[in-house]
Specification:
Blueprint lengths: L1 E3 L8 E8 L2 E7 L3 E2 L3 E5 L6 E3 L19 E10 L2 E9 L9 E8 L10 E4 L6 E4 L5 E8 L8 E10 L4 E2 L5 E4 L8 E8 L2 E8 L7 E7 L8 E2 L6 E2 L14 E5 L5 E7 L22 E9 L5 E3 L8 E3 L15 E3 L12 E2 L8 E4 L2 E5 L11 E6 L4 E10 L6 E10 L2 E10 L3 E10 L2 E4 L6 E2 L7 E8 L2 E7 L6 E2 L4 E2 L5 H4 L11 E8 L6 E11 L10
Antiparallel strand pairs: 1-25, 2-3, 3-5, 4-27, 5-6, 7-8, 8-9, 9-10, 11-12, 12-13, 13-14, 13-15, 16-17, 17-18, 18-19, 18-20, 21-22, 22-23, 23-24, 26-42, 28-29, 29-42, 30-41, 31-37, 31-42, 32-33, 32-41, 33-34, 34-35, 34-36, 37-38, 38-39, 38-40
Length: about 550
């Protein structure tokens, strides 16, 4: 078997990687999307099945009001003493001099939960991981933040002993292990023990095209005792601009039962506009940062290296002892809303789906209009990841808006400043209409205006569809679900990419979503009834040409 990268497509960043017996688990960042910390499992590293997300209650995670790209940064999943340990960071401030964050710890004997009520660890910095040493002692290893404008904000990798009797850190034991390589911005640390050395894997260079993963080691956990590998970087695509995978770096290491080694990292797959350089700009990543896996070996001096070179490869040999895993063949979704609970594919923003947002069951999803799609507190939106450059999404909505402040429809969404949608609303002259609008860097544009599409009085439901074709996407409508009409508005996909958002906003860590939303900012709570949702991927015509 071969691993085909990325193994987790769409927004699955900052993978934490752990093996328990013959089963592998990956935990990913979820940022402001709820539930928090997406989990997957596999026995072959090739095929992966989604598990229930770990943080599914407001006791474990409450992000109401969090900035876009705040919330869960770089969770760490480990296994020791007969249970899973999950360390996660909730970042409350994204831009500016401060990164106000809280690091938590929760445990579970079963990866599917239940997870214990969280323990507050500290707020020293983000990207915290728990290292279980061979002598039974445990340490929190983390990026350390310095808000002072006259100092570098990334102030090295700190190690603090964790007391398992009190379940608290011992701040007096804190020490700086390493201040990073020449690339700077050390973050995402993971610590391992092998052949008498402590190996420290650290992400550097920021999570853009200059992203790196570097390795250092020491025979002790003494302050400033680590030395960098002579062949650093361990993994980067900074100098491989034309490879299929880009931005590889931040991740974690595992060994297989038979002694092979693999490294899971974030990655990205950019596309380019026609006549655009492939070097500058390096491209647009609408699918966000995904998860790739590379094979690792060790040289005669005991340093790890990526098989195939530090740029990684798209296809990687699976472990020799892999147990073939049955998993879905694609990411397509057909949801008829028959269950009283939302499918795990769906996500909400910052808080769980509740009665304020609406309800589901008996063949429909009912969304109660709340704030606009720019609202960070009260928002009725359910959405799923873009996982392909080519797909079609459609729905049917029954909605009678009160006035122009009331809207419901199908959205393509990155964050509260970058989104678009096709929606049903009311116009003073035309009555019930279909409109298309976009929010680009928080500049709102309505496209149809006086040419909004009237909905006939005898039409009860409106079908809405979005077709995404890598560089561009658009919207269509139907009054019978059979005969479709294209709306003459072509939108640029790159506006929903990490790279575009990064040009104006420091939080660019997620990816594009498609979903259903209802807005009634008059706060009368107009309800939209959605009859189904389909997401169907189509073949990327360039896919077979890329390595």
């Amino acid at each position: 078997m071969q691993i085909s990268n990325p193994v987790l497509k769409g927004f699955y960043a900052d993978p934490s990687f752990v093996r328990v017996d013959d089963t592998y688990y990956i935990a990913n960042s979820t940022f402001e999307w709820f539930p928090g910390v997406q989990l997957h499992e596999s026995k072959d590293l090739v095929h992966w099945n989604a598990l229930p997300a770990a943080l599914s209650t407001t006791t474990l995670l409450d992000m109401r009001g969090n900035d876009a790209s705040g919330g869960i940064w770089a969770p760490d999943l480990s296994y020791a003493d007969g249970k899973f340990w999950l360390v996660y960071t909730d970042v409350k401030v994204v831009n500016g001099s401060f990164k106000d964050c809280i690091n938590y710890l929760t445990t579970a004997t079963d990866i599917r939960g239940p997870w214990t009520d969280p323990i507050v660890l500290n707020g020293v910095g983000f990207d915290s991981s728990l290292f279980h040493d061979v002598d039974g002692r445990k340490y929190l290893v983390q990026q350390t933040w310095d808000h002072r404008e006259y100092r570098h904000q990334f102030n090295g990798i700190t190690c603090t002993e964790f007391n398992t009797s009190t379940m608290k850190l011992r701040p007096e034991t804190a020490r700086t292990l390493w201040r990073g390589d020449y690339v700077k911005l050390p973050e995402g640390p993971h610590l391992y023990r092998k052949d008498g050395f402590y190996y420290l894997f650290v992400a550097e260079g920021g999570t853009t095209y200059s992203h790196h993963e570097v390795v250092a080691r020491s025979t002790s956990l003494d302050p400033e005792s680590f030395e960098g590998a002579p062949q650093n970087p361990f993994l980067t695509n900074f100098d491989t601009p034309r490879t299929y995978l880009q931005k590889q770096g931040h991740g974690a290491l595992i060994d297989t039962p038979s002694g092979e080694w693999y490294y899971a990292s974030l990655c990205a797959r950019p596309f380019h506009e026609e006549n655009e350089s492939e070097v500058d700009p390096r491209g647009w990543c609408t699918l966000g940062r995904e998860t790739s896996i590379q094979k690792v070996e060790w040289d005669e001096s005991g340093w790890p290296f990526v098989v195939g070179g530090h740029g990684g490869t798209r296809y990687v040999q699976a472990p020799s002892d892999a147990v073939e895993t049955v998993a879905p063949a694609n990411n397509d979704q057909h949801d008829t809303f028959d269950s009283n609970n939302l499918s795990p594919v769906w996500n909400t923003l910052r808080v769980p789906f509740d009665s304020k947002m609406g309800f589901v069951g008996n063949g429909e999803l009912v969304l109660k209009g709340q704030g606009s799609l720019s609202n960070k507190f009260d928002l009725s939106l359910v959405a799923r990841r873009w996982q392909s450059f080519y797909f079609t999404a459609q729905t049917k909505v029954n909605f009678t808006p009160r006035d122009y402040q009331s809207m419901a429809g199908l959205t393509n969404y990155y964050n509260d400043q970058h989104w678009s949608w096709v929606f049903v609303t009311r116009d003073e002259k035309l009555g019930r209409v279909i409109e298309v609008a976009q929010n680009d860097r928080n500049n709102y544009t309505t496209f149809l205006r006086d040419n909004a599409i009237p909905v006939p009085n005898d039409v009860e439901s409106v079908w809405l569809r979005s077709t995404v074709r890598k560089q561009t996407y658009g919207y269509e409508y139907s009054f019978d679900g059979k005969n479709w009409n294209e709306i003459p508005v072509t939108l640029e996909s790159k506006i929903l990419s990490d790279d575009y958002v990064n040009q104006s906003w420091g939080g660019f860590f997620t990816g594009a979503f498609v979903g259903l939303a209802a807005v009634d900012y008059s706060r009368y709570g107009d309800e939209a009834h959605f009859g189904f949702f389909d997401y169907v991927e189509t073949e990327d015509p360039e896919d077979g040409l890329l390595q």
